[in-house]
Amino acid sequence: MRHVIAxxxxxxxMKAALIGDxxxxxxxxxxxxxxxxxxxxxxxxxxxxxxxxxxxxxEHYGAPAAAxxxxxxGIVDDAQGTAVYSANLGWKDVPLRALLTDRLGMPVALxxxxxxxxxxxxxxxxxxxxxxxxxxxxxxxxxxxxxxDGRVEAGADGFAGEIGHIRVRPHxxxxxxxxxxGCLERYASASAVSAAWAAACGNPDADAADCARAVVSxxxxxxxxxxxxxxxxxxxxxxxxxxxxxxxxxxxxxxAEAGEVLFQPLRDAVRQRVTFQKLPTIVPxxxxxxxxxxxxxxxxxxxxxxxxxxxxxxxx
Length: 316
Prior knowledge:
By secondary structure, the protein is of the alpha/beta class. 38% of the residues lie in helices and 22% in strands.
């Protein structure tokens, strides 16, 4: 059975799958990334995991995978197949596509983790059918993926979609690790909400999920912290929709798990801010933490065809 390898590398763990021509998930696997062992060990761990997936395909489906796709964090040069930089994984200018191609003996596609997750959400997830979308996961930080006609725009140098570094509060002066002040992710990421709520309630272990529960119960400080995050996020999204005019905005990540506690005030806040702009549909992501892996599979499958990519059903 023809299939591809899909591999999503995170800061702590790796998710992988073998995906058939019909989009079916044939096999899933997970391993620790092992970043505490250093960059060289992480790279070897990725290569070994991919080789084991290849061997599994030979054993169970009679042939090795036809192609492989891999999603990694940090700065990624998709065109050159290079993992340019990752602070979390400690690597710099790693020719990961070439290394995997040599180890596996098959074509390999390399992609940025958020853009790859956005590709999956756009083709087979919450953005399916939208010719223009913006995928924004709200996690430790905030990134973005700009979807255009079934592909995701990387930009001239691989930096497209970094919505988390739009300066939404330039005069309040909260420092960002990027070197700027007032960046969106310092106010509206899951980690920012966790920190703000922990300070407000006096419990250093409190997090964004606790804040959301307190919002439901009507706790005034929680409502304040939450609304400040929603307002900042709405400001960032309106800037993005003014520039990009997406048909759909897909919001994912840990903060989106609050459901309508987030989406109802967020939709209201965006609606209040638009003037001439066309209001997009704002929806929760559909694929959860499988998006990166499924997107890596789509990258691999794209290598096998020269026609416009299709949007097959994928079981999650």
